[in-house]
Design a protein that fits this description.
By secondary structure, the chain is α+β, with helices and mostly antiparallel strands. It folds into 2 domains: about 190 residues, Fructose-1,6-Bisphosphatase, Chain A, domain 1 (2-Layer Sandwich), CATH 3.30.540.10; about 130 residues, D-Maltodextrin-Binding Protein, domain 2. An 8-stranded mixed sheet has the order 4-3-5-6-7-8-9-10, sandwiched between helices. α4 links the parallel β11 and β12. Bound molecules: 2,5-anhydro-1,6-di-O-phosphono-D-mannitol and magnesium ion. Magnesium ion (MG) binds next to β5.
């Protein structure tokens, strides 16, 4: 007898029916994002055959060189989401300001934020990359939509997820009722539920940080990593392993799959910046997923999803993953504050 496969659509319909979690506009939104991710996956897979490799010759608002695939992915997400009537506006790592749904389409109640292609430095070397997205509801009844509507704490997210373009293409999703993983069945062109109720082990022996920045770290980060590196001979009494893909999507996917702690702390290279990663479309959606899987996520001092954003492209320090390790790293920061 064939194994019954649950599609993304079926999963969402069941969430809608049984748990009343997903209004129809939100269901449409998630399905449209998932469809756009399939489109991006095809472009990513084609690589040099699709003339999508290399830089586009432009920079984004953060002064980063844009890759062709950054721009293609951004356009795919905008075109897919513009017309459905489920969105009021979108914001992206690759756009300076928000993109309001044009007048010719009906306006919905949701706001979509995304990093269209995270881990861009890995595009040309055939290492996993991904699309990260976060969904907010427009609050208040004012007419129109402005950047301020997006400046909501992460705990307000209605849904969040990512698509990883790796050895398998997977969509990882939360609507606030746990984390589900779907694998793209290329022959069928459909997303198939392959894991439900994802749980991050509370303890871990694996950390992820870019060690090349070590000399720039703040003392609590140095203390935490030094103790890990001392392994069995140090205060932790166990040996640690290290992984750093330099694609947050891939590092978080590993942590959701087998535990671990991911850190991109503040450092002295650019002291005026709180960190490298962006709060609204990188840290918040990943924090929502991690918390829904039983993990924790802080900026070293506070829960990331409690932070009140002040601007669209705000940056934040990130410590997320297995709960006991995130709590330890956070405690070291709080202790060093005195
Ligand atoms: P991007 O959005 O420009 O791709 O940058 C974000 C990425 C994350 O995916 C990853 O964790 C980090 O940058 C890697 O940074 P580094 O190259 O400094 O190690
Ligand atoms: Mg990114």
């Amino acid at each position: 007898m064939a194994i019954k496969k649950v599609s993304l659509t079926q999963y969402l319909v069941e969430q809608q029916r049984e748990h009343g979690r997903i209004p129809s506009q939100l269901r449409l939104l998630i399905e449209v994002v998932a469809r756009a991710c399939k489109h991006i996956a095809i472009a990513v897979n084609k690589g040099a055959l699709g003339d999508v490799m290399g830089t586009a010759g432009s920079e984004n608002v953060q002064g980063e060189v844009q890759k062709k695939l950054d721009i293609i992915s951004n356009e795919v997400l905008i075109e897919a989401n513009e017309w459905g009537g489920h969105l009021a506006a979108m914001a992206s790592e690759e756009m300076d300001t928000i993109h309001v749904v044009p007048n010719r389409y009906p306006q919905g109640e949701y706001l979509l934020l995304f990093d269209p292609l995270d881990g861009s430095s890995n595009i040309d070397v055939n290492v996993s990359i991904g699309t990260i997205f976060s969904v907010l509801r427009k609050v208040g009844h004012h007419h129109g939509v402005a950047e301020e509507d997006f400046l909501q704490a992460g705990k307000n997210q209605a849904a969040a997820g990512y698509c990883i373009y790796g050895s398998q293409t997977m969509l990882v999703l939360t609507v606030g009722d746990g984390v589900a993983m779907f694998t793209l069945d290329r022959e069928m062109g459909s997303w198939v539920l392959t894991q439900e109720n994802v749980q991050i082990p509370e303890d871990t022996k694996e950390f992820a940080i870019n060690m090349s920045n070590q000399r720039h770290w703040a003392p609590p980060v140095t203390r935490y990593i030094d103790e890990c590196l001392l392994g069995k001979d140090g205060p932790r009494g166990k040996d640690f392993n290290m992984r750093w893909v330099a694609s947050m999507v891939a590092d978080v996917h590993r942590i959701l799959s087998r535990g671990g702690v991911f850190m991109y702390p503040w450092d002295k290279r650019e002291p005026e910046k709180a960190g490298k990663l962006r709060l609204l479309y990188e840290a918040n959606p990943m924090s929502f997923l991690v918390e829904q899987a039983g993990g924790a996520s802080t900026n070293g001092r506070q829960r990331i999803m409690d932070l009140q954003p002040t601007k669209l492209h705000e940056r934040v320090a990130v410590f997320l993953g297995s709960k006991s390790e995130v709590e330890r790293a956070t405690a070291y920061h709080l202790e060093s504050q005195g």
